[in-house]
Design a protein that fits this description.
Blueprint (H helix, E strand, L loop, with lengths): L15 H8 L1 H14 L6 H13 L3 H17 L7 H14 L12 E6 L6 H14 L4 E6 L4 H14 L2 E3 L7 H14 L4 E6 L6 H18 L5 E8 L5 H12 L4 E5 L9 H9 L3 E5 L7 E3 L2 H9 L14
Parallel strand pairs: 1-4, 1-5, 2-3, 2-4, 5-6, 6-7
Antiparallel strand pairs: 7-8
Bound molecules: guanosine-5'-diphosphate (GDP) and magnesium ion.
Amino acid sequence: MTASPSGSPLANVGGWFGRFRQGLSRTREALSARLDGLMGRELDPAFYDAVEETLLQADLGVQTTDAVLARLKDQARMGARAPDAARQALREILMASLGSGAPLALAPPPAVVMLLGVNGSGKTTTVGKLAHRLRGEGRKVLLAAGDTFRAAAADQLQVWATRAGADLIRHREGADPAAVAYDAAQAARARHADVLIVDTAGRLHTKTNLMEELKKIDRVVRRELPGSPVEALLVLDATTGQNGIAQAREFQAALPVTGVVLTKLDGTARGGVVVAITQELGLPVKLVGLGERIEDLQPFDPAAFIDGLLAGDAGPSPAPRARD
Ligand SMILES: Nc1nc2c(ncn2[C@@H]2O[C@H](COP(=O)(O)OP(=O)(O)O)[C@@H](O)[C@H]2O)c(=O)[nH]1
Ligand SMILES: [Mg+2]
C-alpha cells in the first residue's frame, strides 16, 4: 500500500492502517456496498430510509444516524445532489464526534491497567496483547492473575505472559483476587515495573460479588500504589453490538471506568458500535482488538477508523464496487 488516505498520518506506520482496515473489512463491506447502492438515487423518503437502515445495521447508533440524515436533508434543501452525499456526511459527522483519540495514562510508573468485563469478552487475551505491545515499547510489564475463579484462567494468562515476556503474579485457585492485586502491587514497586496489568474475572451469575470484588481490587491498587495512574478499561465484544452498553453501565456504576477496549472488531459487520459507545457511555474507546494473534491490538485512532470504515472515498484504494 503506497497511497496515503487523505491526511491520515498513520497510513504507513508499521502497517497499522492496513491491519485496522482489515479488521474493519466486514463493517466496511456492509456499509460501502449499501452506500454505493444509494448513489445516484432520488433523495426521496425511501432514500433516507435506506440510509437510516444502513447506518443502524452497522451499529452507528441512533444519534449518529439522525445527525447524518439531518445533514443530508440540509444539503438537499440547499440544492446539493452529490451522488456520494451520504458517505461524505457520515465522514464529517464521524470526524466531529470521535475526537482525536485517548491514549492510555501510563505515567508516572508503575501505571496500573485493569481489564474488566463479562466472561468471554476478551479480557485475558487483551492482557496478553497489551503486555506484548507495551514490551515492544521497551516497558517492563508485570501481570496479575485476578481471575482466581478457575485455575485455567491463570494458566491461560501464564501462556500469554511467557509469550509477551512479562512476569506474572498468581495465587491458588479460589484465592482472594484482592490479595493477588496486593502482592502484584508490591511486586510492581519492588521490581520497578512500568506497567501492572490486572486480569479479572467476569462471571455474571454472581454479579454482586463480582462488582464488590472489582471494587476491592481497585481500592487495593490505589492504596498500595499512591500516585500511580489507574486505567480501568471495560472490555466489550463488538460482535454483541449495543447489547454490551447495558452491561457497561453496571460496571460504570461500580467503579470509575476510564475507557473501553472493543474486541473482535474483525468478526463483525457492526463495527460502528465504536461510535455508539463513545456517545452513549461518554467513554473513549482506547484500544481495539482486531484478531486473536498477539499483535492484534491497536490504540484506537479515530482517523484510521474513519478511513478504514469509509475507504473508497479518498481512501487508500479505489472505491470498492458493490459485488453480488
Ligand atoms: N476474533 C477475535 N477474537 C478475540 C479477540 N479478542 C479475544 N478473542 C477471543 O475471544 C475468546 C475469549 O477471550 P478471553 O480473553 O478468554 O475472554 P475473557 O473471558 O474476557 O478473559 C477467545 O477465544 C479469544 O481468542 C479479537 O479481537 N478478535
Ligand atoms: Mg479471562
